[in-house]
Amino acid sequence: MALDEHTEELARAAARGDHRALGELLRRIEPDVLRHCARILPYHQDAEEAAQDTLLAVARNIGRFEGRARFSTWLHIVTANCARTTYRSLKRRSAEQSSDELLTQKPDVRRVSVIAGSRLDLLDAMEALEADKPDLAQALVLRDIVQLDYSEVAEQLNIPLGTAKSRIHQARKYVQGVLGDDYR
């Protein structure tokens, strides 16, 4: 999500309490947020839910945006976190349904793309990583989902560059281990 300077300025104004700037900011970022959520979640309805959650999180937490980094970086992090939270919520709701309900709602494997299945597997692997090693998960999300470069990851996490690279490498190995040989 590369945002122009006007959007960055709207974010700074909204962080200072300008409600008009916040409204315009939310309108401007909505399409980018939805696209980013759709890259993470395999189903459009789920991506829309995550995008709405992201916009709500931005509106509620814009005062926490300090302007040290670009707003687009902060927004990437919020978006990735909301998409992952939406996925966990959907997974939890699915587990709570009875097995009869699941049989009637189970997607037809002939109609589910390989890409969608891969994303679900990756989200499961990320969930396992986050539960087991949250410091590694945070570094991996910033590098591979938010697509920050290594120095930006180190800056965001307030750790040395070598530590950031090590965490990302360890996280990738962990996720690759969870996904198995089919994903190498």
From TrEMBL:
<keyword id="KW-0731">Sigma factor</keyword>
<dbReference type="InterPro" id="IPR013324">
    <property type="entry name" value="RNA_pol_sigma_r3/r4-like"/>
</dbReference>
<dbReference type="Pfam" id="PF08281">
    <property type="entry name" value="Sigma70_r4_2"/>
</dbReference>
<dbReference type="Pfam" id="PF04542">
    <property type="entry name" value="Sigma70_r2"/>
</dbReference>
<feature type="domain" description="RNA polymerase sigma factor 70 region 4 type 2">
    <location>
        <begin position="133"/>
        <end position="173"/>
    </location>
</feature>
<dbReference type="InterPro" id="IPR013249">
    <property type="entry name" value="RNA_pol_sigma70_r4_t2"/>
</dbReference>
<keyword id="KW-0238">DNA-binding</keyword>
<keyword id="KW-0804">Transcription</keyword>
<dbReference type="InterPro" id="IPR013325">
    <property type="entry name" value="RNA_pol_sigma_r2"/>
</dbReference>
<keyword id="KW-0805">Transcription regulation</keyword>
<dbReference type="InterPro" id="IPR007627">
    <property type="entry name" value="RNA_pol_sigma70_r2"/>
</dbReference>
<dbReference type="InterPro" id="IPR036388">
    <property type="entry name" value="WH-like_DNA-bd_sf"/>
</dbReference>
<comment type="similarity">
    <text>Belongs to the sigma-70 factor family. ECF subfamily.</text>
</comment>
<dbReference type="InterPro" id="IPR014284">
    <property type="entry name" value="RNA_pol_sigma-70_dom"/>
</dbReference>
<dbReference type="InterPro" id="IPR039425">
    <property type="entry name" value="RNA_pol_sigma-70-like"/>
</dbReference>
<protein>
    <submittedName>
        <fullName>RNA polymerase sigma factor</fullName>
    </submittedName>
</protein>
<feature type="domain" description="RNA polymerase sigma-70 region 2">
    <location>
        <begin position="25"/>
        <end position="93"/>
    </location>
</feature>
